[in-house]
Amino acid sequence: MQSGVISILRLHQGREKPRFWKNGRPNLDGIEYTVIRNLSTAVLAFIGGSLDMTWPYSVRIPLLKDIRSQAPQAICELAPNKVSSNLIVNHDAPPFQNPGLRRAMALSLDRKAFIDILSDGQGDIGGVMQPPPEGVWGMPPDVLQTLPGYGPDIQKNRSEARRIMQTLGYGPDNRLKIKVSTRNTPFYRDPAVILIDQLKEVYIDG
Q1: CA atoms within 13 Å, Cβ hemisphere of 159
Q2: 117 burial class (0-12, 13-18, 19+ CB within 10 angstroms)?
Q3: pLDDT digits (tens, 9 = 90+) for 39-58
Q4: Which of 102, 116, 113, 192 is CA-nearest to residue 147?
Q5: pLDDT averaged over the chain?
Q6: For the whole prediction, is pTM greater than 0.85?
Q7: How far is CA 58 from the centre of its chain?
Q8: What residues contact 94, with CB distance under 8 A and at least 6 apart?
Q9: Is a pLDDT exceeding 50 seen at residue 206?
Q10: DSSP state letters, 8-21
Q11: Average pLDDT of the segment spanning 62-67
């Protein structure tokens, strides 16, 4: 699943230098990087005028809207990027060496729900390569929908996934327990939470 990337930039009034290297462009004496571990603190500093730019890749759409309302002079842009969220499975570790189990996991995913929740619908469903129109080599939507789990009928996909799981010995009374690992930042934690919730639909508890 492809998600949008938010880039936020603001030059505050009164901070431009009087000297210019080229006409119409401010002179740059240097760049200061401030390490702020908490995203909310960084955003508040940006809104308050202490920073000219924030780290763009962890700012979600609701937070972007909040920034726009509190700092209307800020330049806030939502642009596509080539970063995708992926479910990566170790196919050498039991029971994941079974292709049927991996297919069931793929069929459990509601990719549109990920995009609606995480980026307010501002994202694209894609394969390995960035999807069109931004992705020149991305898989066309009609071809993409032929892959397991990419069809629009989520309930049909999950019914097939549950049938596969039952043939492997799993079911409501014998659920597969797995561990989901991800990086400890909201940008990665949030999709992992949604993933765990969706896998429950096919007898997998993360």
Answers
A1: 5
A2: middle
A3: 888 889 999 988 888 877 77
A4: 102
A5: 85
A6: no
A7: 9
A8: none
A9: yes
A10: EE---TT-S-S--S
A11: 86
Query: What domains can you pick out in the chain, each with its CATH number?
Result: 2-79 (no CATH), 83-205 (3.10.105.10)
Instruction: Record the tokens describing residue 135, joined without a space.
Output: 């992705």
pLDDT tens digit string along 6-33? 444 444 444 454 555 677 777 777 888 8
Rounded to whole angstroms, the Cα distance separating 203 from 177 reads 9
Among residues of the chain, what percentage have pLDDT more than 70? 89
Q: Where would I find the H helices in 77-133?
A: 99-108, 111-119
Neighbours of 69 (CB within 10 A): 9
- Taking residues 107-127, report their average pLDDT: 91
Does residue 133 have a cis bond before it (omega within 30 degrees)? yes
Closest CA to 53 of 71, 79, 26: 71
Return d(Cα 181, Cα 188) in angstroms, integer.
10
Q: Which tokens is 95 given?
A: 């029971």
Mapping DSSP to helix (H, G, I), strand (E, B) and coil, where does residue 89 land?
Answer: coil
